[in-house]
Amino acid sequence: MIKAVFYRLKNGDIKGFDINGHAGAAKKGEFDMICAAVSAVCYTALGGLDELCRINTYRESDGNIAMELPEDTEPKVWADAQTILKTMAIGLMQIENQYRRHIKVVFEEV
Predict the structure, then answer these.
(1) For domain 2-109, which architecture applies?
(2) Beta-carbon-side half-sphere exposure of residue 43 (alpha carbons within 13 Å)
(3) Looking at the DSSP assignment, which residues form a beta bridge with residue 103?
(4) Which end of the chain is more exposed for a tag (fewer CB within 10 A), N or C?
(5) Where are the domains positioned within the chain?
(6) Which of 99, 97, 108, 107 shows the shortest CA–CA distance to 1?
(7) What is the mean pLDDT of the chain?
(8) What is the dihedral of CA 12, 59, 56, 14, to 10 degrees?
(9) How far apart are CA 61 and CA 64, in angstroms?
């Protein structure tokens, strides 16, 4: 199962995220549509953060991708990043609505 954790501040802003695991929706060696969908949403958000906000603070390894917004992010850039991160969360929650056995989205207050 994929677990997507979004770290949210008291005001509702998303500070960062950590996505771990594999969906396990396909047999070994076969195409996993859910993993592909999660990857597409995640990498689109990371691309937006990089291209539009100049934020490139993610880390990845096999089955894990995580990022955190820098503390010194300017207010306008922070606002743009929030739009991207909240849209990412919505996309992953829509996948979760259809494939609850394969992905879990949670929010943790930090």
Answers:
(1) 2-Layer Sandwich (3.30)
(2) 8
(3) 2
(4) C
(5) 2-109
(6) 99
(7) 96
(8) 0
(9) 5
